Amino acid sequence: MALKAKATQDFVPIQEIRDGIIVLKNGDLRAIVLASSVNLSLKSDDEQKAIILQFKSFLNTLDFSIQISIQSRRLDIRPYLFLLENREKVQNEPLLKLQTREYIEFIKNFTENVNIMTKNFFVVVPYTHTVLKSDSGILQKLFKRKNKEEEKLAKEEDFEEKRSQLEERVGVIQQGLSRCGIKSAQLGSEEVVEVFYKVFNPGEVEGKIKLEQ
Asked: CB-based burial of residue 177 (10 Å sphere; 0-12 exposed, 13-18 middle, 19+ buried)?
């Protein structure tokens, strides 16, 4: 008897992505914060110690768990080469045209021998809403079954309440990162989808996610 193959979605615990918020199938919410990096090697010893101590203090003040994820991917250099080739075509000065062509060839040869990588740093912020359940079913008997409109309204109110709590946590994370000299931004729906696309398509080159300066 042939086994029925399951779709990829069956293995992903995501119900929907709404206004940048990830809604899991169990009702929990997640937000993703994109964070910039800090090059400690360019800092003095005192600055390095101050940043590490500040980050340690930030982690110790959290009363909820977070997940730090790093995506390391090969940078797509093709758009840059395309831009240079267009500039070469409109260049009227022979010397500048030749220099542009030589620079294009240098970039091509360099990237063929060296993988230019880019890293994105993400902080996943969770919110889990704990609900006490009753096995006796007494509560269900005390209330009449809600119609579809009432159920929809109740779900919407529940989502807004959860989102409010989650956004408070996101604010705490962003403030803590800012004290460490790290810029951050919460991802919107399109950016969140892009993150998961890259997770499930590791062979793709780097896409468009950027942290606004």
From this structure: buried
